[in-house]
Design goal:
The complex is a heterodimer of chains A (302) and B (395).
Chain A: H1 4-34, H2 42-58, H3 64-92, H4 97-121, E1 135-139, E2 142-145, H5 147-168, H6 170-180, H7 182-187, H8 192-217, H9 224-238, H10 243-268, H11 276-289, H12 297-301
Antiparallel strand pairs in A: 1-2
Helix pairs in contact in A: 1-5, 1-8, 1-9, 1-10, 2-3, 2-4, 2-8, 2-9, 3-4, 3-8, 5-6, 5-8, 6-8, 9-10, 9-11, 10-11
Chain B: E1 16-24, H1 31-54, E2 59-63, E3 67-68, H2 73-85, E4 90-93, H3 97-109, E5 113-116, E6 131-133, H4 138-151, E7 156-162, H5 165-180, E8 184-190, H6 198-211, E9 217-222, H7 225-235, H8 239-242, E10 245-248, H9 264-272, E11 276-280, H10 287-300, H11 308-325, H12 330-342, E12 345-346, E13 349-350, E14 364-372, E15 375-384, E16 391-393
The chains are: A mainly alpha (302), B alpha/beta (395).
C-alpha cells in the first residue's frame, strides 16, 4: 500500500540522485562533444573527487566548503594528466576512436586499482564524507536534510554556468566550434590543443563535484564511479548528447528508477532490486523511438 | 593453543615445510574481515611452529602469500585458481557463501581442500566434497535471531536482506521459525551491487507502517557494512523507521558502520533504534579463545571483530590433518579432516563437523552499539547457546 510520506521521500531523493546523474552526464557529454571520445575512465574522475572529499572531511576535519573545491581540482588534474599521458599521444599517432575508447577502458582499470591500493593501505575501502547534514524540516514524517540545499541548487547552478560559458564566452564558443569540426576550427586559428586541455579541466571539475556530492550522500568504494557510469551514460544518451537534454534525462532516470520502482513494488509487487531494468528500458525505448534522444532542435544547437 | 589430535612426526632431520594456501578479501567490502583472517592464520601457524620446534619435529608450516578474493565471486575463483597453480591445494579461504559456491566446482574437480571461516548460508548446508566450513550454517543464527526478537516482545518483522546465498538463506530460516511461533514477517530482498538503496528503504518504511509502528514491530537487516551505511543513512530520515527497533545478523558488524568512519548521525540512528545483532562466537570462557585474543591484540593492537576465531581454528584443523596424513595429500586431508575435527577443541569450542562438512554447532554472541563519551563501539551484551537454545544476558 502506497504511503504518502514514503512516496514524497522517494520523489525528493530522486531529485537528489538525479542531480548527481545530471552532473556526471553533462561532464560526460562535454567530453564526448569536446574531446570526441567515449571516455570509460570518466567514472574514475568522480571516484577521485569522492575520495578527496571523504578523506579531507573525515580525517583532516576540513569543511566541505574547502574539501569540495579541492576534490574538483583533484579530478581536473587527473583528467588533464590522463589526456596528456594517454589520449593525446594516441590522437597524434592517428589512433581510431575504437582504439582510444579501449585505451580509456585500460585507464579506467588502472586508476580504479590505484585507488584500491591506496584505499586498502589506508583502511578506507568503504568511507563516507563526514559532513553533518542537519534536518531542515519534516514532510509527512520524513526528514528533509540540508543535503538537498547543497546538491540540487549546486547541480543546477553548475549546469547553468556551463551553458553560459559555452554560449557567451569566446573560449566556450571555440569549444563548440571544435565540437562541430575540429579541423576547421584549427585552420581558423583556434588553438585546438589548448582548448582540449580546457575541456578536460571542465570535465574533471564537474565530475569531481559529482563525486564529492556522492561521498556526502552515501558510502563510497573505489568502484563507485564505475558503478555510476552506467546511469551517466544513460542520461547522456537519452539526453541526445545535449547539455539541457542530459540534465532533464538525469532527473527522468532518477525519478524512474526510484519512484517507478517504489510504485511498481507497492502496486504490482515487483521487487525493487530490479530497478536498474527501468533505466535500461527507458534507454532502449528512447533509442528506438527517437534515436536523437529527448531533445529539441534548439537544444541540439547548443 | 588448540588441542592436537596426534603428535607430529620427526623421523628425519631435514626440515619439511607444508604451505597452507591463504585466500582472503583484502579489498572490497569484506576487506576488514579478510585482514583479520590473515592475522588469525598467521597467529595459528606461529603457534603450531613453536609447538613443533619445542617437540623436536622437523615439520614446519607456512602460509602462502595471501591471494585477494576481492569480495567478489570471480575474485574468489581467481584466487583459488592462482593458489592451485602455485601448488597450494590445501587452502584457508575467507570465502562468503557466494564465493564458496563459485569455487566449488573448480575445487572438487582439481581435488583442492578449501575451508571457509565465514560462509554461513544454509543453502550450502549440503555435502560439498573438498569444501568445508569452520562455522555453522545460518540455521543456528536464524534460531538465535528468532529467540532474540521473540524474547524481546517483537511480533512483526520487516526483514530487509541482500539477495544472495547469505541473505536468502538466513531470511528463509528466520521466516520459517518466526512465523511458526505466530509472528508476522515481510521480506524484502535488495540487489547488493546497487550504489544506492533509497527506494529499498522507502519500501521498507511502507512495510513497517503496514505492520504497525510500535514496540512489537522491528526491522531485521541481513547485509554487509557497505550497504548498512547507506540504508541506515536513509532510514534515519523516516519517522516510521526510527520509531521501531532494529536488529541485525552478523554481516554488518564492522567498525565501518561506526563513527568516525561514518557521520555521527548514523551512529545516533544505531543508538536510537537500539541496533542489536548476533555474531558467531564462543560464549563460554575458553582458555584457547583467551590465548588467541591476547595474541591477536599483541599482533594487531586491537581485538578481532569478525571471523578471526573461526579462521584460527580452521588453520589448526588443516595443519593437524596434514600432520596426521604425514604428507601434502589433499585427498587424504579431505578424508581425515572430519575425524580430526571431531577430536579438536578450538577457540570457538568443539570443532566437530556435520555430514555436510560444516561446523556442527555454534553459539552466538548478542551485540549492540554503545556510545561512551562520543566514542562508538560494539558491546557484547549476552549470548545464545546452541545446546539449550536460550539467551543469557551479561550482568
Amino acid at each position: 500500500m502506497i504511503q504518502a510520506g514514503d512516496l514524497v521521500s522517494t520523489v525528493l531523493n530522486s531529485f537528489l540522485v538525479g542531480s548527481m546523474y545530471a552532473l556526471l552526464g553533462v561532464s560526460l557529454t562535454l567530453s564526448i562533444n569536446g574531446a570526441k571520445m567515449y571516455n570509460w575512465a570518466h567514472g574514475e574522475l568522480a571516484t577521485v573527487g569522492a575520495y578527496i572529499a571523504a578523506v579531507l572531511t573525515s580525517f583532516e576535519g576540513m569543511s566541505a566548503l574547502i574539501a569540495i573545491p579541492l576534490a574538483m581540482l583533484g579530478a581536473a588534474g587527473l583528467a588533464v594528466a590522463v589526456d596528456e599521458s594517454t589520449y593525446k599521444p594516441l590522437v597524434r599517432r592517428g589512433a581510431t576512436s575504437i582504439q582510444i575508447m579501449l585505451a580509456s577502458i585500460a585507464v579506467s582499470i588502472f586508476v580504479r586499482y590505484g585507488i584500491f591500493i591506496y584505499a586498502a593501505a589506508a583502511f578506507i575501502l568503504t568511507i563516507k564524507a563526514n559532513v553533518e547534514t542537519p534536518v531542515l524540516t519534516s514532510i509527512l514524517g520524513v526528514e528533509v536534510t540540508s543535503l538537498y540545499l547543497w546538491i540540487i541548487p549546486a547541480a543546477l547552478v553548475t549546469v547553468f554556468a556551463l551553458r553560459t560559458f559555452l554560449t557567451k564566452t569566446l573560449t566556450g564558443k571555440q569549444i563548440r566550434a571544435m565540437s562541430d569540426n575540429a579541423e576547421l576550427a584549427r585552420v581558423s586559428g583556434i588553438n585546438v590543443t589548448a582548448l582540449r586541455r580546457n575541456v578536460w579541466i571542465i570535465v574533471g571539475v564537474i565530475a569531481g563535484l559529482a563525486g564529492a556530492f556522492w561521498a556526502m550522500y552515501s558510502f563510497i568504494t573505489p568502484e563507485i564511479g564505475f558503478d555510476l557510469l552506467v546511469d551517466s551514460f544513460a542520461a547522456a544518451i537519452v539526453g541526445g548528447l545535449t547539455y539541457d537534454g542530459t540534465v532533464i534525462a538525469g532527473y527522468i532516470i532518477g525519478l524512474a528508477e526510484n519512484v517507478g520502482a517504489y510504485l511498481l513494488n507497492q502496486t504490482l509487487g515487483v521487487p525493487t532490486q530490479y530497478k536498474i531494468l527501468i533505466t535500461f528500458s527507458i534507454l532502449i525505448a528512447v533509442l528506438i523511438a527517437k534515436p536523437s534522444g529527448l531533445t529539441t532542435k534548439r537544444m541540439r544547437e547548443l | 593453543m588448540a588441542e592436537y589430535y596426534m603428535a607430529p612426526s620427526s623421523s628425519s632431520s631435514k626440515t619439511v615445510t607444508y604451505t597452507i594456501g591463504l585466500a582472503s578479501d583484502l579489498s572490497g567490502g569484506g576487506e576488514s574481515f579478510g585482514t583479520e583472517t590473515v592475522s588469525s592464520a598467521q597467529i595459528a601457524v606461529a603457534q603450531i611452529n613453536a609447538y613443533l620446534t619445542a617437540s623436536g619435529s622437523n615439520v614446519r608450516f607456512a602460509l602462502s602469500t595471501p591471494a585477494d578474493t576481492l569480495t567478489t565471486t570471480d575474485g574468489a575463483l581467481k584466487a583459488i585458481t592462482s593458489l592451485s597453480a602455485a601448488g597450494d591445494d590445501i587452502i584457508l579461504c575467507h570465502c562468503w557463501s557466494g564465493q564458496l559456491q563459485a569455487v566449488e566446482q573448480f575445487a572438487n574437480t582439481n581435488k583442492i581442500v578449501v575451508i571457509s571461516p565465514s560462509s554461513t548460508s544454509d543453502l550450502l548446508a549440503v555435502p560439498k566434497g573438498y569444501l568445508f566450513r569452520a562455522i555453522a550454517p545460518d540455521a543456528f543464527q536464524g534460531k538465535a535471531l528468532t529467540t532474540l526478537l521473540w524474547n524481546d516482545g517483537i511480533r512483526n518483522v520487516a526483514y530487509i536482506y541482500r539477495n544472495d546465498a547469505y541473505g536468502q538463506g538466513i531470511s528463509g530460516i528466520f521466516n520459517t521459525d518466526f512465523t511458526a511461533l505466530g509472528g508476522k514477517v515481510t521480506l524484502e530482498a535488495y540487489d547488493p551491487t546497487l550504489t544506492d538503496f533509497a527506494t529499498e528503504v522507502a519500501t521498507l518504511a511502507t512495510n513497517v507502517q503496514t505492520l504497525g509502528v510500535g514496540p512489537q514491530t522491528a526491522v531485521l537487516f541481513s547485509g554487509f557494512s557497505t550497504e548498512a551505511v547507506n540504508i541506515f543513512g536513509h532510514a534515519a530520515t523516516y519517522a516510521s523507521l526510527t520509531g521501531v527497533r532494529w536488529f541485525s545478523s552478523d554481516g554488518p558488524k564492522s567498525s565501518t558502520i561506526l563513527p568516525p568512519t561514518v557521520p555521527t548521525s548514523i551512529g545516533q540512528f544505531e543508538i536510537q533504534t537500539n541496533l542489536t545483532g548476533t555474531f558467531p562466537q564462543s560464549i563460554t570462557n575458553n582458555s584457547i579463545a583467551t590465548a588467541y585474543l591476547a595474541a591477536f591484540k599483541a599482533q594487531t593492537g586491537s581485538y578481532p571483530q569478525s571471523y578471526g576465531e573461526q579462521a584460527y581454528d580452521a588453520t589448526y584443523l588443516l595443519a593437524n590433518a596434514i600432520l596426521a596424513v604425514g604428507s601434502y595429500n589433499s585427498t587424504a586431508v579431505k578424508n581425515i579432516l572430519p575425524t580430526i575435527a571431531a577430536h579438536t577443541y578450538g577457540a570457538t569450542g568443539a570443532l566437530t563437523l556435520d555430514s555436510n562438512g560444516d561446523k556442527a554447532s555454534q553459539d552466538y554472541a548478542i551485540w549492540t552499539v554503545v556510545n561512551s563519551a562520543g566514542t562508538y563501539a560494539f558491546k557484547n551484551i549476552g549470548g545464545w547457546a546452541s545446546a539449550t537454545g536460550d539467551i543469557t544476558y551479561n550482568p
